[in-house]
Amino acid sequence: MASDTIALGIADPDARPIGERLHDWVVTVDHKKLGILYILYSLFMLVIGGVEATIMRIQLIVPHNHFVSPQVFNRMFTMHGTTMIFFVAMPILFGFGTYLIPLMIGTRDMAFPRLNAFSFWMTAFGGLLLYFSFIGGNGLYGAGNAPDVGWFAYAPLTSRAFSPGHSTDFWTLALLVSGIGSIGTAVNFITTILCMRCPGMTLGKMPLLAWLNLVTGGLVILAVSPLTAAQIMLSIDRYLGGHFFDTQAGGAAVLWMHFFWIFGHPEVYVLIIPCFAFASEIIPVFSRKPIFGYPVMVGATVAIGFISMSVWAHHMFTVGMSSYGNAFFTATTMVIAVPTGIKIFNWIGTMWGGKIQFRAPMLFCIAFLFQFLIAGLTGIMLGASPFNWQLSNSYFVVAHFHYVIVGGILFTVFGAFYYWFPKMSGRMYNDALAKWHFWLFLIGFHLTFDFMHIPGMLGMPRRIYTYEPGRGWDIWNLIITIGVFFQIAGVLVFVGNLLWSLLKGEPAGNDPWDAWTLEWSTTSPPPDYNFAKIPVVESRRPLWDIKHPEDPDWKYE
Amino acid sequence: MKPSEQTRSLGRSIAGIAVLLAGFLLAATLCFGSSPNASQIPSIFKPQSTPADSIFRLSLLVLTITGLIFLIVFSLLAYTVTKYRRRDGDDGREPPQVYGSNQVELAWTVIPVLIVLVLFLATARVIHSIQDAPKPPGTIEVIAIGHQFWWEFRYPALGVVTANELHVPVSDSSNPSPTFITLLSADTDHSFWVPRLAGKTDLIPNRENHTWIDPHETGLYLGQCAQYCGTQHAKMLLRVYVDSREQFDRWVQNEKKPAVVSDEVGEGRRIFETTACLNCHAVSGTVADGHFGPDLTHLMSRTTIASGAAPNTPEQLKMWIQNPDSIKPGSLMPAMKLDEKDLDALTAYLVTLR
Amino acid sequence: MSSATLARSSNESAWALPSRGRVGMFSLIAAESAVFTIFVVAHIYYIGKSLSGPTPKDLLELPIFSTVCLLSSSLTIHLAVRALRKAKVGVFGLWWFLTMALGAIFLVATGREWQHLIYEKGFTISTNLFGTTYYSLVGLHAFHVTVGLLAIALAMIFTLLGKVKPEHSERLDVFSLYWHFVDVVWVIVFTVVYVIGR
Ligand code: HEA
Ligand code: HEA
Ligand code: CUA
Ligand SMILES: [Cu+2]
């Protein structure tokens, strides 16, 4: 059967030469292959970003450490932040979206398959550009190497005067290029979801994953475009001698902040909403109940999308806004808690009265619920602007966002990985290794990021390559760094499990979880054309209807 | 694994993690409690000035509310996860399929809305009380200018210019003498943060920002630059000395005077004024009038050099002048490459700048 | 495979979804609007903030003629697509050519304005803040006109080769959305740069 060709190339029975098979992957426009390419690319970048994080943590393990120089440390956090956000989190989520959306809405490919390939390669090329700065960043002045301006690259640090050499050029070009890729992906998501659904799948009957990716697509379009515009301006400044962010010629540093965070805040929801989507697919299946309050979940997501466009300046509480500005952005920031809370409560409602199976995907999702709760509450603390004047730019912020990003995004992504791995590869993962991965990573995560809140409240700013002893920060930094090694162990187990299962895993069958959405109705891995016959659906859980003809869903929706 | 075993091992693991975390916490508090200079910890929970104090009170409210939310939702989650796990001998039938409930949805929409309202009102009050505070008559005005990677402090009304160590008088409630600080930047963004006195405010080129403090107790308060500003952002430390009124006046009197230059160190002075030093440093009363680096008129009245990176001793001064990178790699002062004799003479001159 | 029997009855006939081209184009336009918004905001923010001259008043004249050309090209492209839909390929070619010509006139006019500013007035992108925002905003728009013109020229070549058929009217219609968008943006740029900015 043709289905085997997408089994990551490894289960491929036909003995075509390896070069030819690789060539297939490079020129492919198939959404499943592109999705897998996205995911593998991001996993690779995750390890790189993780190594950078480890270097930082080793440097900070004791005060006045000399593991790396300040210059190297500054490059590390810039590269770590940029890599993790733009070349790990975004592409991995796009990868799952690209793989899953056509399958879940019952169609054969994305709306624009070639645009899809173009977007992926733009993203990949962006990452290459960023890392090329290690080689090409020195430039004329022999200054610089990798960029060292921080991931939000505040002006005027990025101007030629303060960043000679080419490192910042590579940074801005990398984001420009990958931004174009992201916009392409978003256009594709939106068009696919609106125009390619299988018969019967009205908007109200789409799986939540499709809905949430639709909202994400909209957010990407409205958020990444401003970033692209700002990067164009920065390039004009750096290459053509413009003055957009040149404070010596009257330019305003604060303008860059606004432009960046008009992107930056919606961006964090671009990252978390697809993770909400994973949770919304996984939790019902392992609780054996439909999602609680489907229309409310959709509404809450749309509300989050809208509100998130108006809260950006909560990253700028310390730049000296008027008291009205501060109050306004405090209000909008806190209002976000309401729809987000609704989502949390609905997931609890879904589990309530169910029969919860603690399989690996579900474990990750439950951990996500606990951790996201805490992360959201620290977000509220940061949103109270006076409290923010103390916490901003301290390790408390670092703790807050790693709690959401690692505790929220990474955990659900791992969950999603285990959940759809059988579909993508046709094989079951090793359950024992998955549990090891979970517990190691959970322990590491909590050691690192729970204790990170404390030095922040004791006055430790972020982005410092070293610190003074005797300020009460030493012990916390030690614990934080120890936690990282548990995380590394966890990730290593994960990668090992991945490889082992690809080669030796048991065949998974079409529907190992007894699940309800369309991707489980086709073979694992799905054939090139996904469905032999385009399905027709009548409810949100088409496979439930088949499995329970006596009590189908469409009676209740 | 059978479901029951599954949950039991789940429970065991959770217990294990809890013990582990508690152990770390205990170890940490032990080390932390025996820390020699606990008074030097720039904790936001030990406020000594009105703005920091109002923030502290607000933070208690916010922490209480979020803490309660955490407890409730956490317990709800934990209860759900344990109560509704699949049990031993499960009959394999699907549980009742529930699709939602409007009443419940309404409840968990309205309650958070109310909480948010409370939080917002409390916050708005504090914003107003700090940001729109009136200036009482006895106010001291200071201009703080951020440089890569040091602080310049000017007291225009008192005619004082100094660096890195800010002196302010203590402010008692009967006779308040708060300090209002205008924040400017000479190059990139910085942020002025002394946690026990006030929240941080950025120093941004082309922009004038303000903050104020009114410390209630004398003593030394530590802080540091809190906005990434380049290579040595980490060592752009801040020291605020809160003096009694008399101490402060004495300090001002001394700082106002031009440098006292004795003939004994004429050689050092000559070196200072013929090497590049005077391009970047000012010593009032002499020809040295540079402004790229800190004012050195009363260098020895400071306890640290290079914005807190090293104690202000003759040895450290020598090391600094010979090679600033040995103390603060990446600082903008070049290594001066003097021979041993000149260096000694120069240092001898510098230590007379009291 | 059981996927065929997922529903009680098939109501495929009633199943209609929006056209891919239109949705895709509208998404793209939304993204482009966001890009332009940022540039417009930057321009407005910096009005009157230049530390040194020259000011917009010293340099800019209202480009009325080219504006009229560009705006009328929106009408001609509409007429072209309508003609094609009615299978009048010849009429289509005429209108299409007119669209191209009007767009080209606009571009030439912008080019001459720039030439005048750069070579005669010595006013460049690095002169002052006004220079930076003016050249970037007008340039970004001109770039979009150029891209549109290239696409129009391509379609023109196909028309001359006789390859354009009435069934292509849907695609050209989607493209014309882009062209209308470029026109609308010009109205905003015109207002901001030449009216408010002066
Ligand atoms: C996926 C990423 C993600 C997500 C989802 C969030 C979610 C939130 N974030 Fe976070 N944030 C980041 C990623 C994210 N953040 C990053 C990366 C940064 C730093 C960037 C940098 O500086 O480098 C940052 C920084 C940041 C700041 C600026 C800090 C500073 O630099 O000074 C603030 C301030 O307001 C903030 C607030 C919030 C809030 C209020 C939410 C809310 O969405 C949270 C809402 C959720 C809940 C509140 C919990 C559930 C709700 C209930 C149980 C209902 C009941 C609750 C109440 C009524 C309160 N975040
Ligand atoms: C998706 C986003 C994401 C993710 C997943 C992470 C993951 C991690 N982050 Fe990061 N982080 C950011 C986004 C992210 N971070 C951002 C945006 C910033 C701000 C940057 C800035 O200020 O500009 C930041 C900043 C930041 C800082 C602050 C730097 C500073 O301000 O000075 C620190 C410090 O501890 C840190 C640590 C970590 C750690 C320990 C992890 C761990 O969870 C990583 C765990 C993963 C691994 C360790 C990979 C596994 C590796 C292997 C299997 C290979 C073997 C490894 C070795 C041999 C070392 N991060
Ligand atoms: Cu100055 Cu950081
Ligand atoms: Cu935010």
Structural summary, described in words:
The complex is a heterotrimer of chains A (557), B (354) and C (198). Chain A is an all-alpha fold. Chain A contains 17 helices and no strands. In chain A, helix 4 packs antiparallel against helix 5, helix 5 packs antiparallel against helix 6 (208-240) and helix 11 (360-383) runs antiparallel to helix 13. Chain A is globular, with a radius of gyration of 23 Å. The model of chain B has no long low-confidence stretch (mean pLDDT 89). With 354 residues, chain B is α+β, with helices and mostly antiparallel strands. The N and C termini of chain B lie far apart (77 Å). Chain C has a single domain, classed as Cytochrome c oxidase, subunit III, four-helix bundle (Four Helix Bundle (Hemerythrin (Met), subunit A)). In chain C, helix 4 (89-120) packs antiparallel against helix 5 (129-160). Chain C is elongated and about 60 Å long. Chains in contact: A-B, A-C. The interface between A and B is large, with 104 and 107 residues. Bound molecules: heme-A (2 copies), dinuclear copper ion and copper (II) ion.
How would you summarize this macromolecular structure in one to three sentences?
With 557 residues, chain A is mainly α. Chain A has helices spanning 18-27, 31-59, 70-104, 113-136, 167-195, 208-240, 253-287, 294-308, 323-335, 337-351, 360-383, 385-391, 395-425, 431-451, 453-457, 474-504, 542-547.
